[in-house]
Amino acid sequence: ALKEKGIRLEMRQVPAHSAELLNEQL
């Protein structure tokens, strides 16, 4: 649960950055 919250907070702070990281991982 804590991990999910952290990820959500990161996505809220920098959605574009997170999207880029996800695309790179995929």
Output the keywords.
mainly alpha; flat; 26 residues
Summarize the model shown.
With 26 residues, this protein is mainly alpha-helical. It contains two helices and no strands. The protein has helices at residues 2-13, 15-25.
Indicate the low-confidence ranges by residue numbers: none
Number of helices: 2
Global outline: flat
Roughly how much helix do the residues carry, as a percent range?
over 70%
Domain count: the total is 1
What is the beta-strand fraction? under 5%
- The total strand number stands at 0
CA-based gyration radius: 9 Å
What structural class is derived from the secondary structure elements? mainly alpha
Q: Estimate the mean pLDDT confidence.
A: 68
Distance between the termini: 23 Å
Characterize the quaternary organization of these chains. single chain
The arrangement of helices and strands along the chain is: HH
Largest sheet: none
Describe, in plain words, how this protein is organized in 3D.
With 26 residues, the chain is mainly alpha-helical. The chain has one domain. 88% of the residues lie in helices and 0% in strands. Helix 1 (2-13) crosses helix 2. The chain is flat. The protein starts with a helix and ends with a helix. The model has no long low-confidence stretch (mean pLDDT 68).
How are the secondary structure elements laid out?
Blueprint: H1 2-13, H2 15-25
